[in-house]
């Protein structure tokens, strides 16, 4: 029985200890943002953070995570306000979208360690495979997210899925406009 924390919540999986984290997240916790791609750790679609490091969840068993802190794409930010998520949208990175959660998690881990990554740093950290070939947009989104994290560029939080942007805007204090 494995006990660790997922997205800030303690979990106790009563599954075979050799179960890959990917399947515990998807099947037991219904956290389906973490995708199954290859099952061999090559594609990166299943990337999550374990104690702040980008990890391929198909390659680590739940018994190996005892006492760890795991963050999935769902836990990165509830309202999609994380700088990487904001930059991803601003740079129009997603195409088919399948690899995106893993890419975002890898990019967020990189920027947590290095807010000013060089192209070489990005190439070393971003080993995820994108079948659509959006690598140049990924690189620019990572640079933009770094600027956002450093406060050099503004972020605007996207509304949660299923919320109309006009409805989300109602929660934002209105600007006072003097009208004749």
From TrEMBL:
It comes from Allosphingosinicella indica. Keywords: 2Fe-2S, Iron, Iron-sulfur, Metal-binding, Oxidoreductase. It holds the Pfam family Fer2. Residues 146-180 are annotated as: Disordered. The lineage of its organism: Bacteria, Pseudomonadati, Pseudomonadota, Alphaproteobacteria, Sphingomonadales. This is Isoquinoline 1-oxidoreductase, alpha subunit. InterPro entries: 2Fe-2S-bd, 2Fe-2S-bd_dom_sf, 2Fe-2S_ferredoxin-like_sf, 2Fe-2S_ferredoxin-type, 2Fe2S_fd_BS, Beta-grasp_dom_sf, Diverse_Oxidoreductases. Residues 1-76 form the 2Fe-2S ferredoxin-type domain. GO terms for molecular function: 2 iron, 2 sulfur cluster binding; metal ion binding; oxidoreductase activity. It comes from the Bacteria.
């Amino acid at each position: 029985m494995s006990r660790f924390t997922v997205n800030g919540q303690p979990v106790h999986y009563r599954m075979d200890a050799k179960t890959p984290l990917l399947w515990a997240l998807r099947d037991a916790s219904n956290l389906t943002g973490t995708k199954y791609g290859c099952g061999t750790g090559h594609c990166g679609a299943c990337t999550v953070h374990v104690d702040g490091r980008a990890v391929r969840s198909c390659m680590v068993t739940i018994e190996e995570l005892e006492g760890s802190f795991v963050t999935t794409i769902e836990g990165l930010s509830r309202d999609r306000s994380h700088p990487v998520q904001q930059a991803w949208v601003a740079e129009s990175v997603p195409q088919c979208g399948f690899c995106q959660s893993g890419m975002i998690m890898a990019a967020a881990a990189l920027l947590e360690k290095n807010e000013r990554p060089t192209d070489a740093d990005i190439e070393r950290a971003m080993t995820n495979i994108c079948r659509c070939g959006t690598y140049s947009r990924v690189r620019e989104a990572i640079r933009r997210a770094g600027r956002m994290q450093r406060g050099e560029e503004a972020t605007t939080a996207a509304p949660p899925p299923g919320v109309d942007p006009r409805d989300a805007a109602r929660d934002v204090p209105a600007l006072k406009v003097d009208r004749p």
